TrEMBL record:
It is an enzyme of class 3 (hydrolase). It holds the Pfam family DLH. Its EC number is 3.1.1.45. It comes from Sphingobium scionense. The keyword Nuclease does not apply. This is Carboxymethylenebutenolidase. Keywords: Hydrolase. GO terms for molecular function: carboxymethylenebutenolidase activity. The keyword Plastid does not apply. The lineage of its organism: Bacteria, Pseudomonadati, Pseudomonadota, Alphaproteobacteria, Sphingomonadales.
């Protein structure tokens, strides 16, 4: 079952919508799915639906609600790609993390019994997932092709829960020197696991569209599923 629910901000000064997919039986845990720059579009909703089929309560908050509520864009349409890129400087990432924290609290309220909450994000959401690992009390975190994580390494000391990053080596938004800084900066953090995907570009695990590379997307998603199965048990 899927629907939208309102979630109040931590400050109580507003609310935003979140797409929710529920499993048929009591959820074994919750997973917060963080959008790309394209909003909570069909691809993100499908990811939530897949987590629900696997037995999780899945929630995708509309993080662009202060800019353009319910925006849905397609990465394969050049005009919409440019529109999506224009949202990046307008999006307050610190505020976005607080909205994710509010979503984590909402998920815990919705869960039946003491269950855990994981967070997975893509693109911009991959970066925000790393920030969420540093700043919230979620239980496990996964970031796919997060951009600019090298600039966040000063916060990594605050990561206390299992965290996984998927890194395509030919990412047009994350050059090789940035990837090297990520590996070097995180190599001694026992909570963080990095997976490289040789020759792959940004967006390879998109749920749909031209960016998806099926075999490798399935590999990364299996790793994520196994990771959450262990970390959220």
């Amino acid at each position: 079952m899927a629907d939208y629910i309102p979630i109040k901000t931590l400050e109580g000064d507003g609310q935003f919508d979140a797409y929710v997919a529920k499993p048929d039986s009591p959820a074994k845990a919750a997973i917060i799915v963080i959008q790309e720059i394209f909003g909570v579009n069909e691809g993100i909703r499908r990811k939530c639906d897949s987590w629900a089929k696997a037995g999780y309560l899945a929630i995708a908050p509309d993080l662009f609600w202060r800019i353009d509520p319910h925006i849905e864009l397609d990465a394969d349409i050049p005009e919409q790609m440019q529109q999506a890129l224009a949202y990046i400087p307008r999006f307050n990432q610190d505020q976005g993390v607080r909205d994710i924290e509010a979503t984590i609290r909402a998920a815990r309220t919705m869960l039946e019994g003491p269950a855990k909450v994981g967070v997975v994000g893509y693109c911009l959401g991959g970066r925000v997932a790393f920030m969420t690992a540093c700043r919230t009390d979620g239980d496990a975190f996964v970031g796919y092709y997060g951009v600019g994580i090298d600039g966040l390494l000063g916060e990594q000391h605050a990561i206390g829960k299992p965290t996984m990053l998927h890194i395509p080596t030919n990412d047009g938004f994350v050059p090789a020197d940035v990837q090297a800084k990520m590996h070097d900066g995180l190599k001694d953090n026992r909570h963080v696991t990095l997976h490289d995907y040789e020759g792959l570009d940004h967006g390879f695990a998109a749920e749909m569209g031209d960016r998806r590379v099926e075999e490798v997307a399935q590999l990364a998603d299996r790793r994520t599923a196994d990771f959450f199965a262990q970390a959220l048990a």
